[in-house]
Amino acid sequence: MLALDIHDLTMRFDGLDAPVLAIDRLHVKAGSRVAVTGASGSGKSTLVHLLTGLERPKAGSIRWGGSDLGRLSTGRRDAFRARNIGLVMQDFHLFPGLSALENVLLPVRLGWRMTPDMRKRALALLDITGIARAGQPVETLSRGEMQRVAVARALLLKPSVIIADEPTASLDRRAGEDVSALLVRLAGEEGATLIVVTHDPALLTRLDRHIHLDGGRIVEDVRGEAAR
Ligand SMILES: Nc1ncnc2c1ncn2[C@@H]1O[C@H](COP(=O)(O)OP(=O)(O)OP(=O)(O)O)[C@@H](O)[C@H]1O
């Protein structure tokens, strides 16, 4: 479990007058479940890229526990992400031609961290996520099943943080509800801090803090019962 602390964060892109993201201060308690909402262009994806270390802030700090992502080299940020952050994206990012199990195991294979225990955990996660045939080619799964494989993959290395970017946006209502329930339940069981970009009302009601972005700034931060 890792807490998040942001201080004086600014992200600018060349050619734009205003910063696309400007967050003076944000603290997210370890283990909490946070939604990020905002209109198109409000800075949600930029925030995800910064929180995962895919991009480095132009100014300010982003700390996960004791690690300040802005101070790490690209290689160290990549290593931090691989070790600590499970990512679930809207379009699953699975590899066709590989089975569900091979997709879940791909990141550890690429990182040369494959062990028999890892295979056992991958199979257990596929079972928990309701994927009956681990050997099924991933391109033959339904979209809801594909996203459940992506959730299993994100959880494989027991990440301290799970970040999901519109995880239900390309699913129908029923599949979206299944994925929402699963994501929140497993993050809770694993004790991970969960940050989800979403506009899905069914998913929003499962999260206990809602942060709303407008023009790259936090304009609303609602917690507890009021968030549901
Ligand atoms: N690499 C870049 N170079 C220049 N401008 C960028 C870059 N990336 C993002 N932007 C701009 O930053 C702003 C915020 O973009 P961002 O993708 O974070 O918004 P968003 O809230 O995720 O939008 P959406 O919901 O449409 O995905 C937009 O105005 C976008 O055009």
From TrEMBL:
Keywords: ATP-binding, Nucleotide-binding, Translocase. One of its GO terms (molecular function) is ATP binding. This is ABC transporter. Residues 4-227 form the ABC transporter domain. GO terms for cellular component: plasma membrane. The lineage of its organism: Bacteria, Pseudomonadati, Pseudomonadota, Alphaproteobacteria, Hyphomicrobiales. It holds the Pfam family ABC_tran. The keyword Nucleotide-binding applies. Belongs to the ABC transporter superfamily. The keyword Metal-binding does not apply. SUPFAM superfamilies: P-loop containing nucleoside triphosphate hydrolases (SSF52540). It comes from the Bacteria.
